[in-house]
Amino acid sequence: MAPDEYRLLAWRLDSDGQLRVIRLDNGQVVSQRALIPAGAIQAAYLREPEGDIVLVLEDGTLQRGRIGFSRRFIDEAKAPPTLAALSPGAVAPFEDGLVERTAEGQLRHCSVVAELKKPVALNLGKAKLVAFAPRGKRPVVALLNDNGQLHVGTLRSLQSKDTGKTTVQPVLKQVPLPEHSRQPPWRMLLTERGDSLLLVWRDGHLARFDTREPANVKLAETLNLLDNGASEVTAIGFAPGRETMLVGDNQGGLRAWFRVRNSAAETVDGAWLLPIRELPSHNAAVTSLGVSPRSRMILAGYADGQVQVSDVTTGRLLRSASALPGQPVRWTALTPKSPPIADSAESAAETLAGGVLALSEKDLWQAPFDPGHPEATAPSLFRPVWYESYERPEHVWQTSAADVTAEPKFGLWPLVFGTIKATLYAMLFGAPLALM
User: For 336-364, what is each residue's pLDDT tens digit?
Assistant: First the structure.
């Protein structure tokens, strides 16, 4: 399930193969269609915010695709009367989607699009878990079947010189699991670069595999994610960028883990997976984790209906609300667009452009949300911060990056000392010249 950035629609793919498009203002189903044969999905893996999805079906095939949102503006002169009569902020269904009258008076149409590639035959038994990382032309795939067998490898694309057609061939090998429990792993994750595979059990046991060479996968390390009195991992996922792992437990604890290179690390890849940051906790089990596609914010949902927005880099609690009192939160999402200033003359629909969503078994809750500047705190400005993939906490000034999910680094000391150094060198040459 995923929402669009204007919080008008959400798509939901169920295990029966039905793709449903839902209005977020009233919960009604706008459209519904069979994306794949009924009851065919055994395992699924979604990469947000790109919308890349990987499905393993009952017939033993793997199917890749993308589910996302399409937006266009409708010509006012060609619009039906029902759309032409819309006032700013009003919404109406149209062609398997919704049309909204924007604050500027335009008719913006939003709908869900789904594209699936040709299925790839795996025939590795009934799938229980699947993970995927799009590493160049040879994406990495990991599959765990119901017999507890783990298979890891790549999808190799072959192009025929005669016809020019491209076929995808899976190259997967079985990897032995570490002896830990009779129960199979509960969750499986692949990092964004596809160089680390993480298997997590409910009791907190984790096995990390080095998958830099998918043809030669090695067990890198095993560890326990729980050492704070909790007995069970209840939620797990990646922070934006899919390198920092978030772990929530049944005591309401929430931690951020990522790999740290160290010469003392006795692992095959020379790195440790370490608990870098304790995030704000709550007195109920963490049941859901949602991430922002354009910042380092996360949204945690709890068993008592509470939701909390936190910043992963600073560990700062931004907002907390009792969204669904007494109902476990099953799904959470942060919409990417930032809301405008509250006292602006924008329409109500535009005001709700950015916000938080939480879903229980029967209710959907949403609210506008203005995060401000969560990355700018006194400790992050003047104290060393342990940034993702760094070997230690450091003072760093780096305010721009090629990726919107990169951590902004606002350490002021490099800026202060750089300014002082530049001033001294300028005075060293400038003062004698001025005196002469």
Answer: 764 333 334 444 434 444 789 999 998 99
Percent helix, strand and coil across the chain, each rounded to 5? 10, 45, 45
Does pTM top 0.70 for this prediction?
yes
194 backbone φψ class: left, alpha, beta (φ>0; ψ -120 to 50):
left
Comparing CA positions, the residue from 154, 203, 143 lying closest to residue 177 is: 143
The parts of the chain modelled with pLDDT lower than 50 are: 338-353
Q: Pinpoint the alpha helices (H) of 184-231.
A: none
Among the listed residues 141, 224, 126, the one whose alpha carbon sits nearest the alpha carbon of residue 180: 224
- Strands 41-47 and 29-34 turn out to be unpaired
Which segments within 231-270 are labelled E, that is strand? 233-238, 245-249, 254-261
Angle at the Cα of 173 from the Cα atoms of 193 and 66, rounded to 5 degrees: 45
Q: Do the Cβ atoms of 412 and 420 come closer than 8 Å?
A: no
Q: Give the model confidence (pLDDT) of 226-247 as tens digits.
A: 987 788 999 999 998 889 999 9
Q: b/e for 115-142, b at 16 or more Cβ within 10 A?
A: eeeebbebebbebbbbbbbbbeeebbbb
The mean pLDDT of the chain is: 88
